[in-house]
Amino acid sequence: MRRELITRGCLLVSLAVLFAACGTSTEAPAASPTRLGLQAQIVASELLPGLQRFPVGILEDNTPVNDATVHVRAFSVSGTNTLQLKGESDAPFRGAGLEGRGLYVANVRFDAAGTWVAEITAQRPNGAPKVMRLAFKVTDKPTVPAPGQPAPRSHNPTVRDVPDVSYIDSGQPPDDMHQLSIADAIAQHRPTLVVFATPAFCVSQTCGPQVHAVQQLEPRYRNRLTFIHVEVYQDFKPDPSKRRLTDTFVAWQFQTEPWVFLIDSKGTIRDRFEATADTDELSRAIDQLLASP
Description:
Blueprint: H1 2-12, H2 16-22, E1 38-42, E2 50-60, E3 63-64, E4 69-77, E5 83-90, E6 93-94, E7 103-110, E8 114-123, E9 130-138, H3 182-187, E10 192-196, H4 207-221, E11 226-230, E12 233-234, E13 244-245, H5 247-251, E14 259-263, E15 269-274, H6 279-291
Parallel strand pairs: 10-11
Antiparallel strand pairs: 1-2, 2-3, 2-7, 4-5, 4-8, 6-7, 8-9, 10-14, 12-13, 14-15
Helix pairs in contact: 1-2
């Protein structure tokens, strides 16, 4: 399970540090490396029919860039490999509060499960536009808990269950989002934000920035919203090499990290964000959650 998570993380997260982590080489670099130009990668492990958040990483020569203009067009693929345009969206860069680890996010509607192709057009200031086509799957049923479904009533450990919080939070320092379990928050009918992230062991190196972005929202919302951080690993103290995935992480069936979920007072998932979600994107979703009956 741990190896599968790492492998899929390498395939999914479009950051320069991850390119290095997934393709480490002991060979000496070429004297004149080939320039790759603009590159795009879809940073989502699960897309469903309906209006979906569609995160994209843009790099130039394996270096992430945050100043591109990005547009996404989505094509369904028929049995004869014919492409049919079904929707399109601008994909602005979302990086507020993420310490440079943001992504470009489009909102695209998929009308059916199956094979799709994203045509991603990216252009940097004073540069030529580049059009890239990437195939992906839309699945008919979610594996990871999805909006509209009841959130799993997970009894993730809290500060009351361990000698100190560093046993359930690999961050340096640990954060303060370990007071309640997900099951406790749902039982108390609390609107809740849950972030699944492992700051010390994150394959994509985006978990720490994601946790920090969530923490920036606490002062504004803590009186109306419960904040919970679930660490991806357990048993990493005193020997990090013996760490294993937490029961909660396994129960939610993740293959990547980080994730953020918004759960309403009835225990229903209202929104979910794979990979990084910046403070602007999260605050808008939180406002919608808290304004709904």
